[in-house]
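Please check this chain.
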Amino acid sequence: MDHIQLKCFISVARTLSFSEAARRNYVSQSTVSRYIKDLEKEFGVKLFERTRREVSLTNEGKLILPYAQEIIDTLNKATSAVSRLHSGSGGRLRLAYDSTSIEYPTKCLKKFMKKYPEISVEMQKLSGSEIESALNSTDYDFYFMMRDMLPDNDNIESKVTHKDKLKLLAPENLKMNENDLKGVNLKKQNFVLLSEAESPILYMEIMDIFRTFHFAPDSVVEFDDVRSVYMAVAAGMGVSVLPEGLLKNYAQPDIGNYEFSGIETDLTYVIAWRKNNSNPAAQLFMDVAGSEITEDDEEYVL
């Protein structure tokens, strides 16, 4: 049996008319009659009692009808699901991001979910080493990270999403002066940093700031998550250095932030993906993510 036979059977059962069933299924009446005979032969029972004046379901026909309807309903759902997946309007999207790459994926995801609410999205924060490992697998569709974290891999494509800069964070009651921002007095401060294991590129950039200012901190405490860094600074445990973009997500009223003086602290961020990604939902997300890249950023496309 096939689904056309079952649809014709259901139509005859609902209308008790072979001619009406033929009209609804865009086939001839003789074709409907043949389909019913084929089904009766396959089931080994009569499905309809037929006279010149009327058609009626047999008890066997009544028993089979809900099962036939369930089969057709399931097939319709499957067809719809496949269609949505193929068009990208259904399915699943998997995103990975490092601790410092929150601002841009948040903006993209907000726009994406408004446009494609039926797509299921999974998000996972990964440490620097975890992202490098994940890029060699098919676990995620997109990765948000600092550009310097990209591995030398011909199977990986990327685009620059935005730029950020590092800023000095300090408890609100600890006012930073011009000498602090030029690095003159920073050696005296206790530093609270995101650990090297969590974000090796950020850690390296911060160490470069220390070297530029010709000092090494007397005290450094490391944490594996940004929120803990903020809590420690707010509690007066020390000062920190973090990307400005994180201020929008973790800012606290009792923490001040300051721009370094006389040095460049720019950071470049990218969205990366594997070339062989065939997920339709991924293409839709790339369209949204690409629309958020400014013309100024485009000149940095890799």
In short: Confidence is low (pLDDT under 50) at residues 295-302. The domain at 92-161+269-298 is CATH 3.40.190.10 (D-Maltodextrin-Binding Protein; domain 2). The chain has twelve helices and eleven strands. The longest strand covers residues 156-171.
